[in-house]
Design brief:
Layout (H helix, E strand, L loop, with lengths): L18 E3 L2 E3 L4 E5 L6 E6 L3 H19 L3 H17 L1 H12 L3 H22 L5 E3 L7 E8 L2 E5 L7 H13 L2 E5 L5 H14 L6 E3 L6 H10 L3 E7 L2 H12 L4 E5 L4 E5 L5 H13 L9 E7 L3 H12 L20 H16 L3 E4 L15 E4 L6 H4 L6 E7 L2 H9 L3 E2 L1 E5 L3 H10 L4 E4 L10 E2 L2 E2 L2 E2 L2 E2 L7 E8 L3
Parallel strand pairs: 7-8, 7-10, 8-9, 10-11, 12-13, 12-18, 13-16, 15-16, 18-19
Antiparallel strand pairs: 1-2, 3-4, 5-6, 6-24, 11-22, 14-15, 17-21, 20-23
Family: Belongs to the aldehyde dehydrogenase family.
Protein name: Succinate-semialdehyde dehydrogenase
Catalytic activity: succinate semialdehyde + NADP(+) + H2O = succinate + NADPH + 2 H(+); succinate semialdehyde + NAD(+) + H2O = succinate + NADH + 2 H(+)
Length: 489
Amino acid sequence: MSSAANLGLKDGSLFKTKGLINGEWVGAPSSFAVQNPANGKELGQVADMGVDDTKRAIDAASNALPAWSKTTAKERHDILMKFFKLMTENSEDLGRLITLENGKTLAEGKGENAYSASFLEWFAEEAVRAYGEVLPPMAAGTRGIVIKQPIGVVSILTPWNFPSAMITRKLGAALAAGCTVVIKPATETPFSALALADLAERAGVPKGVINVITTSKHLNDVAKEMCENPIVKKISFTGSTRVAKILAGYASGTLKKMTIEAGGNAPFIVFDDADIDKAVEGAIASKFRATGQTCVCANRFFIQSSIYADFAAKLSAKVSSFVVGDGLDAKTSYGPLIHSNAVAKVDAHVQDAISKGATVLVGGKKLDSIGPNFYAPTVLSDVSSDSQNHSEETFGPLATLTKFETEDEVVNLANNTEVGLAGYFYARDIGRIWRVAEKLEVGMVGVNTGAISAAYAPFGGIKETGFGKEGAHSIDEYMITKSITFGGL
């Protein structure tokens, strides 16, 4: 088993192996191992907490709520800003933890930490701007106002692909609103969550306001309790559509407010009037970030026929230069997938596309010589629209190219999916830009860019991707809006 010292952390106290309940680091009768996906080595053993621990954490959050909800917005602002500064000051260690447990390169790990910290900075400012309203009088002798109050205890359930940012995007909003939380990080990546909880304590977040439940064998039961417990008033979840539907079912019994950001299947369209070199840059930024393991990464590439060959050649040349390996190696440009099941899914999508007429331009194979969790960044041409990856999110380093002729045709192809999170396209004609941006059935659109995520932009999708927004405007997701009418004036 590893220790903080041999993980290369400067501040070893950031390496926690126990959950957090009411300000106490809590163990469990059993533990589970967390492995580095790059080499399979064990990073540490983490407390395998259960339903009783979860109930205690929810009770702790409930007990802490009255005092925390009564703090002033300025007090919450100051604590969040201190939290933000601590994340910035510890960026080397926090970025390294992300790389160790997730596999992404160290540059990406540090980049995620900066992105993660930006939510705390953003919501610190949102805390002091959660304004109410003064209403026009309903009748003579009356006055009306609208106030906003914290919704209560919040359950936060997060995935492994952004083990820090998916927490702060929710946690920052909840704390700014005056809510208390119970966090369940992904089994694969608990260390980043625990390090954040430690920094939150250092920033002055009172005990019980943030609680963290780490679990593996009790995963389903813990998630069920977090959604069904009547004390919990709000659930924020990021993960697959399949799991989102299960959790929504659990929450329906008490009609909890939910924010769900589930599966994506982003189209990436290149029209014949696009700057092809810029489109290739955007494709790489969108598709291969975090080795293709992001919910907003391009999943289906549609290229207009007259520029198809040029785009395919330029993208293939770029992808063939990628260096795949351990994320801690400075030469590495792309790291491993999270586990062997993820590799198997990418390979299944590749083989399915090939069986339906696709051609491998780059990659198309497992990289067993590096390790069991590595797959070559891949570009396939002439991919049929009935291929598996057109109906399923690959979540890996696979770019599938499909030819199209007309604008109407490609919009129909792009919208032919049950989910709608992100979409991208490259074009210069301003009329086309407006038309396509409005017609794409997604919650977020990137026009001539492959990067669309920021703390100050609303994040979320439509259709079976889920509902609610994160980032900008999302503090309202953690508040209730109450109208108060005064009579007899």
